[in-house]
Amino acid sequence: MTDHDLVLRIASxxxxxxxxxxxxxxxxVADEAERILAAIPGLETTRHVRREPVHNLVSVLKxxxxxxxxxxxxxxxxxxxxxxxxxxxxxxxxxVRAGHLYGRGAADMKGGIAAAIAVVASLAARRxxxxxxxxxxxxxxxxxxxDGTLALLETVPAMRGDCCIVTDAGxxxxxxxxxxxxVWLTLRAEGRAAHGAHVHRGVNAAEALMGAVRxxxxxxxxxxxxPADVAAAIADARTxxxxxxxxxxxxxxxxxxxxxxxxxxxxxxxxxxxxxxAGLDIRLPPGTTTAxxxxxxxxxxxxxxxVEMTVDVAWEPTVTPPDHPLFTTLARAAAPVIGRTPVxxxxxxxxxxxxxxxxxxxxxxFGPTPxxxxxxxxxxxxxxxxAVADALAVAVRDLLGR
Length: 402
Known about the structure:
The chain is of the alpha+beta class. The chain has helices spanning 4-15, 27-38, 106-125, 149-155, 205-217, 228-245, 249-254, 290-301, 325-338, 353-358, 382-401; strands spanning 44-48, 56-62, 65-75, 95-97, 100-102, 130-138, 163-166, 174-179, 181-190, 194-195, 257-265, 271-272, 275-284, 307-315, 318-319, 343-347, 363-365, 379-381. Strands 1-2-6-3-7-17 form a 6-stranded mixed β-sheet. Strands 11-13-9-14 form a 4-stranded antiparallel β-sheet. The chain has a 3-stranded antiparallel β-sheet with strand order 4-5-18. The longest helix is centred in the first third of the chain and has 20 residues, at 106-125. The chain is globular, with a radius of gyration of 23 Å.
């Protein structure tokens, strides 16, 4: 068992410090986390900065003798709180109501960080295990982690563990073994301005843009050949996982999705726009590569005069085999705590777990269920957060002993 009071105190202390992305300013919250970590005997903490104001921490706790290295990963940054009217209490004034801890970052993911720190504290109190535990707290996960976890993996040897557990938002009943890849595209169209009554004098950039967007939206119909073990895991997890992720999650995980997230054109209905721009987010499952998607998108716009495409983000799908012992160990540790054996499944959204997998490190996402994530009154159920901490403590000891 972990110290549940400690979990609540740490989570509340971290929530109280704004660390929004943008601008990913994690200096103050890293200071607070470093203060908390300094109270754990034997823990050595270092700070790493690739780009200001993104501050990252790496803490190492060594066991009684050499052995495996287990990495626990979390991110210190959060979404902005948005409209204050959506909050019952101020987002940076943590409060407990009806068994939930409220505040920006309670679920995503300062609660999960608190659980991981409590696990490290319990290991420090009884250092009869082999190996070492590494706690990595990164600063810019919400903006894809280039100056956070990616920078740490590229420069800090302690980050290269035998396995990694990311305590990000999810559900303790669904252990995540992989994530879809992503490609973000910007389309820009050039036309010729004119009065709306004199369309024969102009070239409508918005219409040119629409003509280019449609075939990219059609990439949703592109067939995908999922690896057999991934397809089986998604199918086996569907009933349990969709209770948390929503009906249709399994289909979303198995297919290419395209979201037209931004479109800008023109200034007035009676003017022919000479410029238009669109932003698209394409998510691709295992069995597809970013190169294939980018090539298909380029082909779709190649014959569109006045339209150009740029690739802003490209990350490959990442998977740890769903039968890896990491997931067996986590499920065995969680079952008596949550009252059921967790299923394993892909994760719909991206997390820093993908970066560890890109470095060949077996990685799981195991954290509490989010409520109000990205919106108002974000919260986490305390009983579930404590269950995550307790299960994680058992799993880490088991992994160190293997």
